[in-house]
Specification:
single chain; mainly alpha
Length: 325
C-alpha cells in the first residue's frame, strides 16, 4: 500500500509542532517512522536528519533577521559539534549489522527520547523560574553575557554525538545545556543560536548517514512536502496558542515513544505517560487558580477606586460651587 500520503501528513504534524514550540523535530519524526511506518531505525534516523537540513534554515533565517543569534556562541559550538555529529554516525555503525543492530538502535533512540524528555522538563522549569522570579526579567538577562568557552565546546561535543547517533537533541537537549551554561542569555537568543548552529551540525550528521547508506532521500523529500508548510503554519499560530500546553503534550508523547522503543510493557508505558502528564496538569491548575485570584484582586481594586471616586465626587462639586467667581 502506498504510504506517501500518511507520511506527508506525519511530516506536516511534526513540522507544525516544531513551528509551534521549537521542540520535537527528530524526537517525534524518528519514532513515528519506526513505529508507525515500519522504517528501519537507522534509515529513519538518516532520513530525518536529511529532512532537517532543509527545515532548520526557515527558523534560523527569522532569528537572523531579528538579530537574536549569538554568533560568538555558534563559533564555539561548531568546532566540536560538526565532527562529533559525523562521528556519531560511525559510532552508531560500530554497534553491528543486521537485525541485531536495528534492535540496538531502537534502544539507543529510546534512551535518547527519554533524555530529551528530561531536557524538555528542565527547559520548562527554567523558563518558568525565569518568568516567576526573574529580577527585572528581561532587564536582568544580558544579551552581551560572557561566553564560557570550555562548557560551550563540551556542549557541542556531547550534543553532536547524540544527534549523529539518534537525530534527537538538536532542539531539545542542546538548548537546555546552553541555558544551564549561560543562564543570563535571553530566551530568544538561546533559540536563535541553537537553530543556527544546528544547520551545519545536522548537515554533517546527514552527510555521514548518506556516506554509510542509511539515509533515504526519497523518504526525506516526502517528509518535507508536509513538514515545510507545517513549520510555517506552526510559526504563525505560535503567537495565538498557549505553547506551554503543547509542550506538555509533547513530553507525554515522547515519554510513551521512548518507553515503547525500549520495549517496555504496556502497563509501564501507561504509567510513564500518566507520570509525565501529572506535572503539566498541576501547573495548569495552579496557573488557572492564579489567574482567578489576580482577576478577583483586579475587580476588588477597581471597585474600591470607583467607591472612593463616588464619595469624593460630591464633595469636590460642593467645594467647586462655593468657590468665588
Amino acid at each position: 500500500m502506498d504510504s506517501t500520503g500518511p507520511i506527508v501528513i506525519a511530516g506536516a504534524l511534526v513540522g507544525f509542532a516544531v513551528g509551534l514550540t521549537g521542540m520535537g523535530g527528530g524526537a517525534l519524526m524518528t519514532p513515528i517512522m519506526v513505529m508507525v511506518f515500519g522504517v528501519n531505525p537507522t534509515a529513519a534516523i538518516g532520513s530525518d536528519l536529511a529532512a532537517s537540513v532543509f527545515m532548520k534554515p526557515f527558523g534560523a533565517l527569522v532569528h537572523q533577521r531579528a538579530g537574536t543569534v549569538r554568533w560568538d556562541i555558534v563559533r564555539l559550538l561548531l568546532p566540536t559539534a560538526v565532527p562529533a555529529a559525523c562521528g556519531g554516525v560511525f559510532l552508531l555503525r560500530a554497534l553491528g549489522d543486521g537485525d541485531d543492530v536495528q534492535q540496538r538502535v531502537k534502544y539507543v533512540v529510546g534512551a535518547a527520547l527519554l533524555l530529551a524528555v528530561a531536557g524538555m522538563l528542565a527547559r520548562l522549569w527554567l523558563d518558568r523560574r525565569r518568568a516567576v522570579g526573574g529580577a527585572g526579567s528581561e532587564d536582568a538577562e544580558d544579551a552581551e553575557v560572557r561566553v564560557r568557552p570550555v562548557a560551550t565546546l563540551l556542549i557541542g561535543l556531547v550534543g553532536g554525538v547524540i544527534v549523529g547517533m539518534t537525530s534527537v537533541g538538536s532542539g531539545s537537549l542542546i538548548i537546555v545545556m546552553l541555558m544551564l551554561a549561560h543562564p543570563r542569555l535571553r530566551a530568544n537568543h538561546l533559540v536563535g543560536t541553537d537553530l543556527v548552529q544546528a544547520i551545519p551540525m545536522v548537515a554533517a550528521a546527514a552527510l555521514g548517514h548518506l556516506l554509510v547508506g542509511d539515509a533515504d532521500l526519497g523518504l526525506a523529500a516526502t517528509l518535507l512536502i508536509g513538514a515545510v508548510p507545517g513549520v510555517l503554519l506552526g510559526s504563525l499560530v505560535s503567537s495565538r496558542v498557549a505553547g506551554g500546553a503543547v509542550r506538555w503534550a509533547l513530553v507525554v508523547l515522547l515519554t510513551g515513544s521512548g518507553l515503547s522503543m525500549l520495549g517496555a510493557p504496556s502497563a509501564v508505558i501507561v504509567l510513564g505517560c500518566l507520570g509525565a502528564a501529572l506535572p503539566g496538569a498541576a501547573v495548569a491548575v495552579r496557573d488557572r487558580r492564579t489567574a482567578r485570584l489576580r482577576a478577583a484582586a483586579g475587580t476588588a481594586d477597581r471597585s474600591a477606586r470607583e467607591d472612593v471616586a463616588g464619595r469624593t465626587g460630591p464633595i469636590a462639586s460642593a467645594s467647586g460651587a462655593r468657590r468665588p467667581r
